[in-house]
Amino acid sequence: MQFIKTKDAYQALRYPEFRAYVTGNTLFTMALLIQEVILAYEIYHLTHNPLALGLIGLAEAVPYISLVLFGGHFADNRDKKKIMQGSLSVIILGSVLLLYAATQLKSEHADFHMYLIYFVIFLIGLAKGFFSPAASSLNPFLIPKEVFANAATWNSSFWQLGSILGPGMAGFLYAYAGLSGSLMIVIGLLLAVMSCMFFIKSRPVPPKKVVHESIWHSLREGIEYVFKTKIILYAISLDLFSVLFGGVIAILPIFAEDILKVGAEGLGILRAAPSVGAVVTMLSLIYFPPLKNAWRNLLLAIAGFGIATLVFGLSSNFWLSVTALFFTGAFDSVSVVIRQTVLRIFTPDEMRGRVSSVNGVFVSTSNEMGAFESGVAAKFFGTIPSVLIGAGVTLFLVTIVAFKSKDLLELDVEKASEA
Q1: Which of 201, 316, 312 is nearest to 262 (CA)?
Q2: What does the DSSP 8-state code read for residue 263?
Q3: Would you call 204 exposed, middle or buried from its count of C-beta atoms within 10 A (0-12, 13-18, 19+)?
Q4: Radius of gyration (Cα) for the chain, nearest Å?
Q5: Which residue, of 194, 255, 315, 399, has the greatest Cβ tally within 10 A?
Q6: Torsion angle of alpha carbons 12, 15, 17, 23, nearest 10°?
Q7: pLDDT tens for residues 299-353?
Q8: At a CB cut-off of 8 Å and minimum separation 6, what does 192 contact?
Q9: What are phi and psi of 205, to 5 degrees?
């Protein structure tokens, strides 16, 4: 890959509101991932059923996908900060319900406890349908346009930091503090996120070209913009299909418990490994952004993700598996930086919420629906064959897209960001 050295690696961090934003984003990521890991392990411990793990992704994806386009509309027409605060309050309430269940329900109520977990995951999906587009569309207003690429790298780096600390802590928290102790920490982190928002000012809604616009027209406008802007459509589609078929995160409890036999602590290491790889790569991308020949770099990164997933599926050694997951995160981080920069540069201010929500549908489909696909595939094809099939599909799809998008190979995203 070809990289260009940036002039000031710390540009975006010189803006106080952006610092508060990425700090809150890190804590939010940590909290949700700690909760995700401990709930997945709890459910697998109760059921030993791969499909039960897949249903976790489905429980979050259905409400999120159903609402996120409306969330994007509201983000473009309402105070983004207030939307984030309201959504976060719902997520905190859900975590409190889980804590109550963990401390008050007896072992004979195990089935009810499991259904409550699915309900709270559903509730979080609803809240994220409004939180995610509001947060994504607020981000570009915190820094000037010429800092977008640097901000995308730092934002992704902090997100990946949360992705390391959250899962890495989760396995040990579950092993030594139990479900209730872990949930107390989750609630504390979410309250800290709420405090970070007080350091960010509310932003006025950008003036709209159409004064009286129906919500359906607004949603259609955002969808049409994505589908007619080839680089945005291809970038988010590649992410969708690579993670949808090649992602293995949802079934890691099976590898930790039954294949590699490393328990909850090992699950934490496996779950954190992709994020460690991502952060290491992100640190280099801060100094050497992959924006010259961005499309070629994106294709190579997705192909590398597929190959690393293939190695993980073939591995029976714990540390080789950790290394393979490390490289899935490293390659994915290049994809994330390019995709986020493209979305910032090629999206008009008045459409950021709706475009972010369309991107959110793609991302949620790849992550949460990918988790469901992983559980179903593992149930019917076997855990290891499902990983190998997913890696093969990823490599096939990136090859097809490479042939269909040759005109994007010469695009210089860095020059576009300076225009």
Answers
A1: 316
A2: H
A3: exposed
A4: 20
A5: 255
A6: 50
A7: 888 899 999 999 999 998 999 999 999 999 888 888 877 777 777 777 776 677 6
A8: 24, 27
A9: -70, 130
